[in-house]
Amino acid sequence: MRGMTGTRLGGTGPGAIPRDLPPANYPASGGAVGQQEQESSTTAKPEAPIRPEPPCVFIPGQEPESRFPTQFARLFFGVITVLVLYYSYAIIKSYLVDIFLALVVFFTAKPLYRVLTRLLFGQRALASALTCLILALLIIVPLVTLVGIVAKQALEFSSLLGQGMQSGTLGQWLNAKLVLFKNYSEHYLSYLKLPLPPDQIKVESLVQTILTNASKFVYSNAIAFLSGFTTFILDLALILFVTFFLFLQGDDFIGEIKKLSPLSAADNEMIVSEMEATIKATLWSTVVVAFIQGFLGGLAFFLFGVPQAAFWGTVMVPASVIPVVGASIIWVPGVIYLFLQGNWTTAIGLLLFCGIVIGMIDNLLRPMLLRGTRSTPTVLVLLAILGGISYFGMIGFILGPFILSLLLSLLSIYEKAILAPAKAQEASLAATSESEK
């Protein structure tokens, strides 16, 4: 390059600038190039500072980048999801009732678990195991005790029947009661034009037939009873096993479900709180009603002269949980016993007391306790219990109010999120049209 002294582009001398690097990377050794670079450096504008790119913010009206860019990808994901959900349901279908009961126990016994966690200085696993052990003892010990007492009473009753049959006192007693019943009922049967009972009844053969059929029934159902008891123990173990992990991870699991819900955080919290309140109210109402019925039933048996009133009152506590029949499975035989004894007045008194007082407790107190935090009409709660038992079986006395609570929560969300804005917009349009007029 002519006119340049002291440096050459692409040369090999001491002042040469290599071709592969820009000259600005090397200091000028003098001459015109150095003067030119100095002038250019004094006149060059300073470079603008590099600013970081703003974060990606979703702007309404602009769709974010999709993970499924094609229709086939969306279809493939949907099909796979449906298949996985179906087979997941098929896997746990047999244990859905146990899982639901574990949730019931989890929500109900959570205060006890929290107290034990504080007492054990934050040892959550130990507190969970201890809570499950306490629950198991509260269920198994009364059940085994009750079964033992019933078995003992059944053996004593069978022994008394055998002794009465051998001595003949049972036949004489039954003949006297049947004659009394025959004389009392002949008037009403003749008035209703119904056939009268025979004059002679072979009591011994009748009792022998009853005992034979009863022994056959017990023998044929003994295996089914043992199988059912084994199934009950296995289900109880599974329920407590699931409850153990719910105490440890239940809140996190519910939080993950809330994240998957498209509803707002407030709506999700309302649904979960209503479900928890309903489950607690259902279980506690069942326990309270059962103990009240057992206490009143035992008191009635004592006042009206039924023997072993304390025992039958205790048996009435778990019997009141049985759907439809409830405690009547215990007090109706007590009424029959008093009738057979010839105590007509006390029998009618026991019938009226148990039928009205105990029945009213079951039909009125239970729905009142089941209202929970929401002012649900009592008739709706009662229908939810009866309909749940009719459709789901015994578990329906919890599932019925549970589904009713979920329905009312969804209706509340619908009213607040859809109906209220629509009504407000309609009122605004009406006000605008009125102002224009």
UniProtKB/TrEMBL annotation:
Its main location: membrane. It is a multi-pass membrane protein. InterPro entries: AI-2E-like. The keyword Membrane applies. GO terms for cellular component: membrane. Keywords: Membrane, Transmembrane, Transmembrane helix. Residues 35-44 have a biased composition (Polar residues). Residues 1-53 are annotated as: Disordered. The keyword Aminoacyl-tRNA synthetase does not apply. It is found in: Membrane. Pfam families: AI-2E_transport. The chain crosses the membrane at residues 72-89, 95-113, 125-151, 222-248, 283-304, 310-332, 344-361, 381-414. Belongs to the autoinducer-2 exporter (AI-2E) (TC 2.A.86) family. This is AI-2E family transporter.
